[in-house]
Design goal:
The protein has 356 residues and is mainly α. Helices cover 81% and strands 0% of the residues. The longest helix is centred in the N-terminal third of the chain and has 44 residues.
Length: 356
Amino acid sequence: MKNLTDLTPEQIISQSNNKTAQNNYFKAVLLDIFFVFYSIIVFERAIYYKFILTKRYLPFSWNEVFIILMISVIIGSLWTYSRTSLSCKIFGLSKQNSATKWTVEIFAWFLFNITFIAGWIITKISIVSLFSNDGIVGAGRIFSALFSPELNIFDEALFAIIETIYLALLATVFSIPITLVLSFLTARNLMKENKISFAIYYVFRLILNFIRSIEPLIWAIVFSVWVGIGPYAGMLALLLHTIASNAKLYSEAIEGIEQGPIEAIEATGANKIQVIWYAVIPQVFLPFLSFTIYRWDINVRMATVIGLVGGGGIGTLLMQYQGLAKWHEVGLIVLMIALVVWIMDYISAKIRESLY
């Protein structure tokens, strides 16, 4: 096998293109298998069992799933091989002819329609229920109570909303140093120099993607069991999700920086830390600051929601009065939440405008 030094530039480019085409083909096969599997499952479960047979409980069998998976593997692989699939179109592998165009368009339209129909069936959308007389009367009764708030609980609600603001603030502040470190470890352009650093990049990316994929509401439930119900559990839930979310935003900002300053600093013989300090940080400081302020704004909104599962703050108080059907008290809490969210949104917007 020839070394890269023995190859001409044209041969190196050709090898690189062949490797890219092979990777794209493999991805297209996997995606086509998924498309076929998804289409069969959705059609069978949602449309056939739920809609046609009107079954309340869907039957499940691992043997059936395995058979469907095997069918999907065969059909998906053959479809990719024909170069007429939707995945081939996505990865630029499809044949440029009218048959491919029609095949892709028909399947894309089919995929959209079965997804929409399945969503309609599963969510049990009913226009009749929405405009029924009993429903409208009940909704009117609740709205009238919400817009005639009970002011006797103002002090209690004020303390709870302040607790919510500080909960969000501490979660944001504590996340900053951890996020900064993780953002540099998950920036592809800084971690691709050798296999060890690239492995670190993939491990941290995988962990952060997992954390970010779980909503703060779920993390609040976990921490409520771990440290007990209250604002501490809510703060930890927001902290964990903020770290994972901001690390992604920070790392993407790092990956989008200009390479000129980095090359200039490296040319002076600077080490890795010096390159980051003098060439990377000056380019990402303002985006980092803007992302952090915006995240505090988001955390204030989220803090009201995680309180519903014991995360402390105004959400916990809202859940208590809602459970007792005290809608006038709920009305005051809702108005206070709306006011605070509006004020925080206005302040954060002004701060971000002043940074640019």
